[in-house]
Amino acid sequence: xxxxxxxxxxxxxxxxxxxxxxxxxxxxxxxxTPMHVRxxxxxxxxxxxxxxxxxxxxxxxxxxxTRLLSALISENxxxxxxxxxxxxxxxxxxxxxxxxxxxxxxxVEKNIFNKMSKDISEEKLAEFQQMTRLLTGNLME
Amino acid sequence: xxxxxxxxxxxxxxxxxxxxxxxxxxxxxxxxTPMHVRxxxxxxxxxxxxxxxxxxxxxxxxxxxTRLLSALISENxxxxxxxxxxxxxxxxxxxxxxxxxxxxxxxVEKNIFNKMSKDISEEKLAEFQQMTRLLTGNLME
DNA sequence: TGATTTTAGTTGACTTTATCAATCAATATA
DNA sequence: TATATTGATTGATAAAGTCAACTAAAATCA
Lengths: 141, 141
Hints:
Two copies of one chain form a homodimer.
Chain A (H helix, E strand, L loop, with lengths): L2 H25 L6 H12 L5 H8 L3 H13 L3 E5 L7 E5 L1 H21 L5 H18 L2
Antiparallel strand pairs in A: 1-2
Chain A binds a DNA duplex (30 and 30 nucleotides) through α3 and α4.
């Protein structure tokens, strides 16, 4: 496995993923972006969840997260509630509209996952994910 | 392997890759971007190579490729030569400066690859790449 | 052969993603 | 108590990306 080809192979896969996600989200006439989707999912799955949590999970700059969350608030998909533990931060919550969107998005992700993993065994997929995590861990040391 | 986690896992890996690449390119005081690097590598490895070839290889829009190549020409990293087979297109070639950059970039990629694959067998890596290609193929059908 | 369709490359306009720097206030640490 | 760190915001800017429209060359069709 030569180094250039392996890196390029991964870039290709993720690019294909993003294109597929874009296509299916668009087909549902949803106006959210991939990063919106990811943020909403994180907020739905972590409790409590602050901007800092999202930034850490995604390993992104605080500035980007602030803007991303601000957009989601504007779209009435999430809201901020005071964090009793820390006056500097706010807890993020999905609105009803956000919950509704999350359901649609989950469906999209399922479709994409099924398409991607067609004819591939659960075992192989589990191995693949394990390897992905290993590689990521190595890179982040 | 749940669908959301698997997609997220891949995004994390590629994000880590890009960050690592950025860090190492910056450390060499090179002013190129990741896409510059990828384009230069493609041009070096395909003969003949036209803008259309690059766009197809990367599965990107022609507009982006035109701009990318234009930037590389401005930086004197590549040049265009008439394509005798088709008056509409031009063959892309690396300049000496481009060749020099390519060598540095190859070193960066090798470092990243070695870091990423630390303690992982060649066999496992080959399997991983094979799987990556399968998944990409499924998505692009 | 001429008409029509497709393709290579360019430009315009706009969107999405992303980071560094600076700042202020709250919290943690020495 | 003084100092350092952290949460969030804003400014400024860069990189990556796409759709649309266009022109000219090439391919295809009748």
